[in-house]
Q: What sequence folds into this?
């Protein structure tokens, strides 16, 4: 049974989410602010975190940043902040999905199922390699020389797709369709935000932007 941590300061919404997810067979824990959420995260192992943004003491962005320092656990933002700027900020903080309030519980469960399904799908002992990159399909990490860098689930899947499809150019739309796992009608700049995070982590300039189209990998060996 998968365990989900719900971090939400609105008690009525929190109770509804906990009750609904519990009725779907999940083991659900909850916290009423960011500080409590971090405390629970450090004590228990969760398969998914549903995270509000606007909370007292420590907001959702701060919580996400702290979790991402040592964990790739899937994170879904569930918030009333519905502007494109807020959504892009959420993905820049390396969340796996972003749902705006008010929301449908049917949509919520489908998003939860999709994120958990993608999280499970790569739990094996295989590797993918490209030049000095060695992508570990079990730990969601990338090894470069002797250094190991953690990737979020979406970063991992983007890099995996680029390696598998090399030397093809992958459009932003194709990345959205394949990596997000459902029809996403948002701005393709969300892909750019994830690419930016990957580039920061792997340091080598392997990911090449093809202007107006998308991305591919580039051999940089001399």
A:
């Amino acid at each position: 049974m998968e365990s989900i941590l719900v971090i939400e300061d609105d008690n009525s919404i929190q109770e509804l989410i906990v009750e609904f997810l519990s009725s779907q067979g999940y083991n659900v824990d909850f916290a009423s602010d960011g500080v409590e959420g971090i405390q629970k995260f450090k004590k228990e192992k969760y398969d998914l975190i549903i995270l509000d943004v606007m909370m007292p003491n420590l907001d959702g962005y701060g919580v996400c940043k702290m979790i991402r320092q040592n964990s790739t656990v899937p994170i879904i933002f569930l918030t009333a902040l519905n502007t494109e700027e807020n959504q892009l900020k959420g993905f820049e903080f390396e969340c796996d999905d972003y749902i705006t309030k008010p929301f449908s519980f049917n949509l919520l469960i489908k998003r939860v199922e999709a994120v958990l399904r993608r999280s499970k799908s790569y739990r094996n002992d295989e590797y993918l390699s490209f030049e000095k990159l060695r992508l570990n399909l079990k730990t969601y990490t990338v090894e470069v020389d002797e250094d190991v860098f953690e990737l979020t689930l979406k970063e991992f899947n983007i890099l995996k797709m680029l390696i598998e499809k090399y030397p093809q150019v992958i459009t932003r739309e194709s990345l959205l369709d394949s990596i997000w796992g459902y029809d996403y009608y948002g701005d393709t700049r969300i892909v750019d935000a994830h690419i930016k995070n990957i580039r920061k982590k792997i340091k080598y300039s392997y990911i090449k932007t093809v202007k107006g189209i998308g991305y591919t990998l580039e051999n940089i060996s001399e």
